[in-house]
Design brief:
Length: 78
C-alpha cells in the first residue's frame, strides 16, 4: 500500500529539521542517484543508437561531423 504523496514544501520542511550532517548526507545521496539515473539514460541511448547503426538505419559520422551538427542545432535553438 502506497503512502500519500508528500509535497515539495513538506519535504523541504522535513529536511530542514534534520541535523546539518544528515542534510549534507541527503544531498549527496540525491546527487549520486541523479548521476546514476542519467548514466543509465546515456547507456540506454547508446544501446539504441548502436542497434540502429547495426541495422543500417544510421550512418557512421566523424567526430567533426557530429560536432558541426551539434553546433548547428545550438545555433538553430537560439
Amino acid at each position: 500500500m502506497m503512502k500519500d504523496a508528500v509535497t515539495l514544501d513538506e519535504a523541504i520542511d522535513v529536511v530542514l529539521h534534520l541535523p546539518s550532517d544528515q542534510q549534507e548526507m541527503l544531498i549527496d545521496i540525491l546527487r549520486h542517484r541523479q548521476i546514476d539515473g542519467r548514466r543509465e539514460e546515456i547507456a540506454e541511448d547508446a544501446q539504441q543508437m548502436k542497434a540502429l547503426l547495426y541495422r543500417g538505419q544510421l550512418e557512421p559520422q566523424s567526430a567533426r561531423e557530429v560536432i558541426a551538427d551539434l553546433h548547428e542545432g545550438l545555433e538553430n535553438d537560439q
